[in-house]
Design a protein that fits this description.
about 375 residues; single chain; 16 helices; alpha/beta; Rossmann fold
């Protein structure tokens, strides 16, 4: 089956011109990294070639963006079966676009050897812990500050992430915000290990005596009790930056959870105004002026068309309507078997791969057949050299 170059998965009328407005400004990419101990639960994450490498995955990804190789490890981690990190797609797109990028640390267990904006320093705990994310309000405020700065650079902002285990925390946060997400998320392995992740989320809710929708009146409590540090930071960046520029949330399940948080916060301004940290009021006012017509989500076709997930249902349940696009990537004709494994449901997305691929296609009029050789070249440079 030949996929469209850009798939309009779910586009409300209010956002019909989003891609055109996105294209008017050159892209700037920001990758927010964070760790969650949820990723260390066996079966939750397929990031890295083994569980001992999971904490290094995000650091290795962003080191690759800067240096073309990992410094914290011998090489960039790959899925245990062999498919490479999606960072190769990100790198190919950044090279094509000649786009600048920044790294934001929301609380990563391993500090990469790259310049970073620091929003938080404490990794997340398991979602079954009494508190999954500490200092959530501060993470959100730091995100707002970063968004203010990035919005003045006259670029469209592409917000990616690298958070192993993040689809599980995304499922939990969406449930907390009243979205029926169980069994509907995508993930980095065939079938997405839905039963394990669903059981884990249900156990966390049960042990904390919580029910679906418990966080609707205080949305940040969803992150504090069940989320990961990236989510609060990313929401703050997107809300703040959207006042001035188009913002593309780069990812699938994880960015739908961020979109759910943004929508819930805008529907509960009192919850944001309740933040009492000194100097916060100006930042809060900035977040409340978010322009959602400037916000969309983009992922890969491996995620949007994943038969083991249901992103269209998740999008329909968002508190505020937003569009979801997908880059029509297809590795079935690749000359590398490890890339073809993407077509079997491995990896699918990460490090902003889908949104940046979409931008490369949108800005430079590329289709999959033209873009695939560029991705293969990066793969060969990173994984096959020597």
């Amino acid at each position: 089956m030949t996929l469209p170059t850009i798939i309009k998965v779910h586009v409300p009328e209010s956002h019909n011109d989003f891609l055109e407005r996105l294209r008017r400004l050159p892209p700037l990419f920001t990758c927010t990294i964070a760790s969650t101990e949820t990723a260390l639960i066996p079966g939750v994450s397929a990031a890295g070639a083994g569980p001992e490498l999971i904490p290094y995955t995000a650091a290795a990804d962003v080191e690759a963006l800067v240096y073309g190789q990992a410094l914290c490890l011998e090489k960039i981690p790959e899925n245990p079966v062999g498919p490479p990190s999606p960072v190769i797609i990100t790198m190919a797109a950044l090279r094509e676009l000649e786009a600048p990028f920044f790294v934001v640390d929301a609380g990563n267990a391993v500090t990469p050897k790259v310049p970073m904006l620091t929003a938080g320093r404490q990794p997340g705990r398991e979602i079954t812990a009494p508190e999954a994310v500490a200092e959530v309000e501060e993470l959100f405020l730091q995100g707002i500050i970063i968004g203010q700065q990035l919005a003045d650079n006259h670029h469209s902002l592409i917000l990616g992430e690298s958070v192993p285990g993040g689809t599980t925390t995304a499922m939990a946060v969406m449930e907390a915000l009243g979205i029926a997400a169980l069994g509907k998320i995508s993930g980095s392995m065939p079938g997405n290990n839905q039963n394990l992740k669903q059981d884990l989320v249900c156990r966390a809710l049960r042990e904390k005596d919580l029910q679906r929708g418990f966080a609707l009146k205080n949305p940040l409590s969803a992150i504090r009790l069940l989320g990961d540090p990236m989510q609060a930071v990313q929401a703050g960046i997107a809300m703040s930056a959207s006042r001035k520029i188009p913002v593309l949330l780069a990812g699938g399940t994880q960015m739908i959870a961020v979109a759910a948080l943004i929508g819930a916060l805008l529907e509960q301004p009192a919850a944001i105004n309740a933040i009492t940290r000194r100097g916060s009021q100006k930042l809060i006012n900035c977040a409340l002026k978010a322009q959602l017509e400037n916000v969309a989500i983009a992922t890969t076709a491996w995620v949007s068309e994943d038969e083991s997930a249901d992103l269209r249902s998740l999008m329909r349940q968002l508190p505020q309507a937003l569009p979801l696009y997908a880059a029509g990537l297809d590795f079935s004709t690749s000359r590398h078997q490890n890339l073809k494994l993407y077509e079997e449901g491995y990896v699918k997305e990460g490090v902003g791969a889908g949104a940046l691929a979409l931008c490369a296609m949108l800005y430079h009029d590329l289709d999959n057949l033209k873009f695939l050789p560029r991705i293969e070249k990066i793969y060969e440079e990173i994984y096959l050299a020597g």
